Amino acid sequence: xxxxxxxxxxxxxxxxxxxxxxxxxxxxxxxxxxxxxxxxxxxxxxxxxxxxxxxxxxxxxxxxxxxxxxxxxxxxxxxxxxxxxxxxxxxxxxxxxxxxxxxxxxxxxxxxxxxxxxxxxxxxxxxxxxxxxxxxxxxxxxxxxxxxxxxxxxxxxxxxxxxxxxxxxxxxxxxxxxxxxxxxxxxxxxxxxxxxxxxxxxxxxxxxxxxxxxxxxxxxxxxxxxxxxxxxxxxxxxxxxxxxxxxxxxxxxxxxxxxxxxxxxxxxxx
Length: 270
Fold this sequence. Notes:
Blueprint: H1 4-14, E1 27-32, H2 36-46, H3 58-71, E2 84-92, E3 102-114, E4 117-128, E5 131-143, E6 162-166, H4 170-178, H5 188-192, H6 203-212, E7 222-228, E8 236-242, E9 253-258, E10 262-269
Antiparallel strand pairs: 1-3, 2-5, 2-7, 3-4, 4-5, 6-8, 7-10, 8-9, 9-10
Helix pairs in contact: 2-4
């Protein structure tokens, strides 16, 4: 796994001078094998059962170092500090096993306008013996002073299926399992340097924890698409709502995380 602490330091030192209107035509590849101990650590912090099947979100952490290398590499137009992870979509074509070596490919794609700036995708694919088995699309927003949105009417939170109490060290525990040591997740002190009152949970932990709540009830091939709405402050408590028991809507099985505001909204499709 890449040394992400060094990459974040590089981003802090050099990133604020970056300007540009195009994504570089760059990509990175890696052959990875799964460390069972690392997989177990990830499964425990995210609420999955420990076993030899990879949670659908797990290959994301295997490829995250490559993603950060691309976003701190030559020609990338935006500073890494300040990028907002606004969405993530993952599709798996079949279950993946810990014993299977994975070929990862990471590329940047689709720089496009957003009402608050510009957004782009980081696309990670995993293949086994030349067959694509898993695809991850993370969407990032670069805020650029776009017109402020009218505040949306305050919605009532959906009835929770469960309530989760999140400890203050959750960001550090997930960082140990994922390698993502962004300072906003690690402590009150480092988060306040970036404008947060205290540490916030990783968005990909929130997604993984929601998917773990469906474990054992999903098909072999499926897709999970989420939108990250607002940070989850640590420590804290969130309500998880799921429409699984009532069956899918036309769009699929919907789920959400709420406290006094929506933090995540997602849908699972087969």
